[in-house]
Amino acid sequence: MNQRETALEILYKTIKEESYSNLLMRKELEKLPQIQRAFTTNLINGVLRKYEYLSYQFRDEVKSDTALRIRLILCMALYERFYLKEKDYVVNNEYVELGRNRHEKAFINALLHKMKALKEAEDPWIRFNLPEWIYRLLSSQYDEKTLKKILNVYQKIPSVYYRINKKKCRMEDLEKLNITALNEDVFTSTENLLTTEEYKNGYFYVQDYNSASLYRHLDLEKDHTLLDVCSAPGSKLFNCLDVLKPENCYANDLHENRVKLIRKMAEKLDYKDIHYLNQDGRKLKDVLDLQFDRIMLDAPCSGLGVIGRKPDLKFHVRPESLDELEKLQLELLHSVKELTKTDGIVLYSTCTLNRKENDRLVRKFLNEEERFELLEEDTIINEAGDAFYYAKIKRAKE
Length: 398
Known about the structure:
There is one protein chain. The chain is α/β, with parallel strands linked by helices. The protein has two domains: 3-121, Orthogonal Bundle (N-utilizing Substance Protein B Homolog, Chain A); 210-395, Rossmann fold (3-Layer(aba) Sandwich), CATH 3.40.50. It is built from 16 helices and eleven strands. It has helices at residues 3-16, 21-28, 34-49, 51-56, 68-82, 88-96, 102-114, 124-127, 132-141, 144-155, 197-200, 235-240, 256-269, 284-287, 322-336, 359-368; strands at residues 161-164, 179-181, 186-189, 204-206, 226-228, 249-252, 275-277, 292-298, 340-350, 372-380, 388-395. Helix 15 (322-336) packs across helix 16.
């Protein structure tokens, strides 16, 4: 397959089969020549980001039951023409050839010749490239100023951030990599650092700028014990190891392969003696016969805070799945209450902006569990990194 065929297949599987585009790209782009990979990545991510607006361009020309494959070909062609500024004749020739028969080729050719400019859209969810239900959900939960902030974050292509491993190096040790330090923990670079020897040797790891600040709300002390309930990929736990002893930390995840990934990265970073668990977080109270000073619960969620970084999430989350997520999140919170020491802290967090999974869920937990009290909470929305919510909850009574 050439680069456009590869992009088409990845987009189709992402939307139709709800596969994850980053995993597909990791596998499929290796089959392409190196020179074609950047273009293919740009094309895939661009179409995912602007799918709603691109689809709007031919909404009146294409029947609702037209095959997804044809719709994707048209979206790709429009993205390449108007955003990547490819010549019209190149776009027409390349994308007509993606039709599987004479009828499809003629249909694609006719539409591409007809669409000479992009139309403006009145509906805000189309302008901001969101499914209508997500836009309406957010607009019902946030004021106009905050909603605008969220939509602006969604439009921004996020930077890649790196978090330093303080056990192995200092920020000044990495200056030759052309880095820009953003604070004492996080830096960025104009270059791809994932191929460097420093990365391979565990001097740093990839972590979102905002996410890397979460551990500071735990008020950690050296001898504290910590349980990370939904730990994968492990970066928030590794943040805590600036302060804590690895032997006092427990990393749990439901999926065995993800526990292996945490262990592999921990070994790379030279963090030994972490305790690893492969359990349903709701059943940890039946497995562990001890209590913890600190518990991190970064709960499974709808992911509405990271659409800017992961545009394929728009195609995976469904409105009917939210109730099940809320039920799971509440069960997880209740499951760790007996694992928390008196005066211990549970740090609940999500990477969603759906308030029913965030502050409203925490209020429900606190109403059901009088031994706990809320110390602080916040919803982080800024262009520095991914949006997320956290609540710092203390077990104040026996």
